[in-house]
Please model this.
Amino acid sequence: MDKNDLTRELSRITETDDIFKQPDIAHIFIHHHKVIQSHLLPGLKVDVKEFKDHIEVNTIVEKNVKIDKPVHMCFGMIPEEGIQKMIIKNEIQENASASFLAHCAFPNAVDIQHIMDGTIKVGKNARYRYLERHVHGFHGGVKVYPHAKILLSESARFYSEFELIKGRAGLIDINYEASCEADSVLEMITRISGKGDDQIMIKEIGHLIGERARGFLSSRVAATGNTRAEVYNKLTASAAYARGHVDCTEIIKDNGIVSAIPIVEVNHPKAHITHEAALGSVDSKQLQTLMARGLSEEAATDLIIKGLLS
Amino acid sequence: MKNILEVKDLSLSLNGRNILKNINMEVWEGYVHAIVGPNGAGKSTLASAIMGLEGYRHYSGSIQFKGKNISKLSIDERARMGITFGWQEPARYEGLLIRDFLKAAAGNKNNDFIHEQLERVGLDPDEYANRAVDKTLSGGERKKVELASILAMDPDLVLLDEPDSGIDVETLDKMFEVIKEQRKKKRTIILITHSLAVLKQADHAFIFCNGEILKKDVAKKVIPYFKNKCLPCKHKNIPEEEGVQLG
Model:
C-alpha cells in the first residue's frame, strides 16, 4: 500500500473521510512510524521526527491561538503484526485552546503493540480537550500502552476521554498522571468494553497541588467473556479548597472479573475529595425493567452496557 | 365479562412471613382495576408475582394470563405475551437515551413513533428524546418516561405500582388522561395504590389487607368502604377479628 492507500484505509476505518474536504480542520495521519498525510493551521505547529523504531511528534498550539474545530490525529497500522511506538509532546500555550481527536485504528491486528509515551503541558488559562477513540479488530491481538504525564498550569483546563468500544480491547494498559496547579480543572474519563480474553488495566492519577484546583476521574468498564479488568484511580489534594471526585462503575458479565481501587488522599484541612465505586453484574431493577418490556436478559444487558459506555 | 388474568389459590412467603394468603382474583379484560390497601398488605407483592419479578416467583397456586398458566415463564416471556409493569420508583440508566429506551420497548419502531409516545405523556420530544434516562431527570419526568415506554410497548395488561408516587398534580392529571385513553382502547390496567384519587380512576377494585382480599366490587362501591374503614386502616393485620367477610 502506498501513502494514499493507507490514508484512505485509515480514514475509512475511523470514519474521518469528511475531514479532507474541510480546509479549516487540521489533521495528521501516522502509519507505523511515518507521517502519511497532514494539514496544519496557523498557530498549530507540528514537528515530526521519524525513526526506524519510533516516531516523535511535538505539537504546539501557540499562545492565544484558538483552534475552533478538533484537530484529527489518526494513528494506526493496517498490517497484522508490528510495533508502533510514539513519543508525543503536546504543548498548549498560555490562553490557547484546542481540541484533539485521536483515532487509533488496528483493524487487522493479530500481534500489534501501540506504545505512546506522552507529555502534555497545558499553559496558564489554556484549554485542552483530548479524545482518544480506538477501533480494533476482533482478534484481540493488540497491546495498547498509552502513558502520559500531564501538567496543568494555573487556571488551565484539561479534559480527556479514552474510548474503546468497537472490537476487542486486547491488552490495554493506561497510565496517566496529572499535576494540577491553582484554579486548574482536570477531567479524565475512560470507557472500555472488554470481550474474550481481554486484559484492561487503568491507572489514572491526579494531584491537586494548587489552591482551588479541581479533579474528576471517571472509569466505565464492561468486562464480558473472560475479560480481566483492574482500575486504579487516585486523586490527591494538598492545597486549600482543592476539590475532587473519583467515580468507577464496572459491569461484569459471563466470566469477567473486575477490581477497582479508588484512592483519595487529602493533605490539607480545607481540601475535599469524594469517591464512589460500583462493581458487579447489571443492576437487577434496570434489567427487569427492560425485560418487562419484552427484551431478553441478553438484549437488556447489552443495552444497559451500551448506555454505560456511550 | 372475559377474564384476561386469573389468580388461583396464590400464596407467597418472603423471609418466612406469609405475604399473600390464598389469593383468588379475576381481572376483566378492557377495564381499569385497582388493588388498594394499607402499606404491607401485599399489593405490590402480588403485582410482582404476576410480572414474575426476581424473588417473587416461588408462589404456590397459579396465575393464568389469556387462559395460559404463566407461572413457569420468565419476565420477558410474560412481557412478550402482553404483560408489563411500571415501577413505583423506576430504574435510572446512565448513558441510555430516552429515545433508545423507548425504542427497546417498542420493538425498534421509528423516531416519529417514539416522539408520539413522548408527546402523549406531555414530554417535548425535542427536549427529551436525546436525554439520558439517568438521575438528571426529576422523579416526575422519570415517571412520564416510564409511562411513555409502556405506551410504546402497547401491552394488553399493565401493572402500575403506586402511579402517583412522587409526582406533581399536573403529571398526575396527565397520567389519568393516559389511563382513560387506554381504557378506551380496551387495554387492561391494574393500579396498585393506597390513594383515593387513583382508586377513583378504576372501574373495579380489590381491597387488600394482611395478604388477603378483604373486599372486591365495582370501584364506586369500594370507594366509601375504603375511605371510611381503611383510611386510616382499622383492621390492618386483623381482618378476621374485625368480623369482615372476605370476598
